[in-house]
Amino acid sequence: MRQQVLFYLKIFAGIYVMALGIATITVPTYFSNILGLLSVMSYILSLIPGILKVILPSAKKNTVLIALLKHRRFLGVAAFMLALNHGALQFIKENINLLESSTYIHYFQGLTMMVIMTILAATSSDESVKAFKKNWKKIHKLTYLIIFLLPWHIVDKMSNHWTFVTPIALLLSTILLSLFLFRFYKERQATIAKYLS
Fold first, then answer.
1. Cα(37)–Cα(32) distance, integer angstroms
2. What region does 100 belong to: left with phi over 0, alpha with psi -120 to 50, or beta?
3. Model confidence over 36-85: pLDDT tens digits?
4. How many whole angstroms separate alpha carbon 49 and alpha carbon 60?
5. pTM here?
6. Helical residues (DSSP H) of 71-165, grouped into ranges
7. CB within 8 A of 66, min separation 6: which ones?
């Protein structure tokens, strides 16, 4: 398992270095947006199995969902690495100054999501599960904040300059939010029914 994790980390570190290299010789705008979309897609693929298991209990035996569930940590780390590339390219493109306090207000959603994803990526190993025990699940519930921040981030940052990637990312993040809210509703209904019986 450890070798597999290191292998995936090497792949994503390579993607990061390659993205920064390409950004120096091309216009980083579209490349950054594509990396953002790929990050959204990886993130959704990491969450979909857990959401669909609650919404559609019959989907538990679906081979695609089983495969996604088996590799969800790697998909989450992939989402983190792609988001890191996206953020780094945005910093280059926008000449963002981290010493200005207005930066943290303007880029609140993106920076918050990156902090959360950093925590999740850093704690997505078997060693972390053993070390944190019950708290590991609590830490990884932070991912649900990203579900709400993601559509807001896309609309806020792309409001005046949509690209071909923007509607796709917005649609996917809105579908994820809707599925998550439906899952929450179903879990709440099950809890109420259990309490009443």
1. 9
2. beta
3. 998 999 999 999 999 999 898 888 888 998 888 888 988 998 999 899 98
4. 8
5. 0.84
6. 72-94, 101-106, 108-122, 126-132, 134-140, 143-158
7. 49
